[in-house]
Amino acid sequence: MSAPARWSVQHEALLADCKVFRVFKEHCNHPLDHREGDFFVIHASDWVLALPITPDGKIVMVRQYRFGIRDLSTEPPGGVQETKEDPLLTAARETEEETGYVGGHATLLGVCSPNPAIQSNRCYFVLLEGVTPSGKTAPDEHEEIEVLLLSPKLALAEAAKNPAQHSLAFLALHQLRDARPQLFL
Q: Could you count the other beta carbons within 10 Å of the beta carbon of residue 150?
């Protein structure tokens, strides 16, 4: 069997604009055997998950209601990257908006494609070392956020109890453990 090929998009049409993402129908063509098919792709802005660490080694996490699972989720702060915004700036902005923590040294730990079968966006994982509370938050209209300070080891243990609940948060915590294993001792 030969290696897979990159299909070409012959035509795309917007099917639905859902505020935080858009669904496109893409008619694609195989470059070698000329098979054709219609595929549905979700186009969304890139996301960022911040991993804010306080000077005493605690990770700042948030607990909030998630409409997709109809339940509460404990996860790193994060959100949508503005057009052409650097992921490091997005991490700092979202952390302050959701938790009131500011500052710290920002480092990109990794990036992933959340669901490459149907989504075109990426999720960045950003470490913010040395964040401190400012006391100012600016949650979105429908956000109710509880801010938690946890040991990274406990945060990962809690995420491991149900890694499917927020798989990107679980992956972000693993990226943190790989980058700063001393935080998990």
A: 15
Q: Are residues 131 and 105 in the same domain?
A: yes
- Whether 2 is covered by a domain: the verdict is no
Closest CA to 183 of 162, 163, 155, 164: 155
Spatial contact of 180 and 173, defined as CB atoms under 8 Å apart: no
Q: What is the pLDDT, as a whole number, of residue 148?
A: 96
In this structure, are 33 and 52 located in the same domain? no
* CB contact at 8 A, 96 and 144: no
**Residues 6+ away with beta carbon under 8 Å from 84:** none
CATH number at residue 77: 3.90.79.10
Q: Does 1 have pLDDT greater than 70?
A: no
**133 and 146, same structural domain?**
yes
**What is the average pLDDT across 24-38?**
95
Instruction: Name every residue whose Cβ is closer than 8 Å to that of residue 172 and which is 6 or more positions away in sequence.
Output: 49, 51, 76, 109, 125
Q: Is the overall model pTM greater than 0.70, yes or no? A: yes
Torsion of CA 66, 79, 156, 146, to 10 degrees: -60
Q: Look at residue 162 and tell me if it is in a domain.
A: yes
Q: Which residues of 167-178 are buried (b: 16+ CB within 10 A; e: fewer)?
A: ebbbbbbbbbee
